[in-house]
Predict the 3D structure of the following.
Amino acid sequence: MLNDGMILINTFEEPFGDEFGKGVWTELSGTASSSIQGNIVALASFNGEIRFSACTGFFIEWNGCSTVLTSTSLVRKSGYENMINKNLRIEVLLPTKQRVEGTLQHYNLHYNVALVSVKGFCASHPAKIQHLWNDHSCDVVAAGYCFKSGKLMAARGEQFGRPVLLDCKYLLYSRCKITKAGIGGPLLDFDGRFIGMNFYGQDQGTPYLHWSVILCVLEHFKTQGQLLKLTMLVSHLICLVGLWLKIAVFG
């Protein structure tokens, strides 16, 4: 459990969009709203009692387990793009508002993707990241969860633009306006289907990593070994072709 004496370096607590139960939450179809609420988590990394970083995460079904998908910004070493801080302790704010210890399971700094495991909790319906070639719906929603306040938020927007090469990471953009509290959070359609993971941007909209690229990274986590780089290269090319075909067809 956290105490009131913890020191915050980066707060990442600025809210955005609509609080749970209001605004865009009332527009989501079927069980989408409760599904998001049951899968979303907030994570924070600590060096002693000093909070280093915080972000949002989402329970996904991966390798037979219920695992949290999030951003490596949680553990990336300040000033070093290709290093993580291995001395950090991770705490996870669950959908139940309980705070528990998390363990960094896998990470890929190149694609800014991390997996965190949580003992003693299993999401009832973790998100399935799978092939959704009809995910060209214009209306999308970005969700976030504040670690300190426990505030659950969502902002609506639209997908737009073309894939952008930014530091070798192929990103798409939405017009969902989020804050840094939403980094690592899910981008979904109004039926609650997973489209991608959000990052933070101020100029071109909110960048996100598409599900097809995330699938490649997850496969990379499963097949670490001698052929790792070749496997990632081939998978990356397949994902890239798929992204361009999708956007060329659906606009």
The radius of gyration is 17 Å. The helical segments are 32-39, 211-222, 228-250.
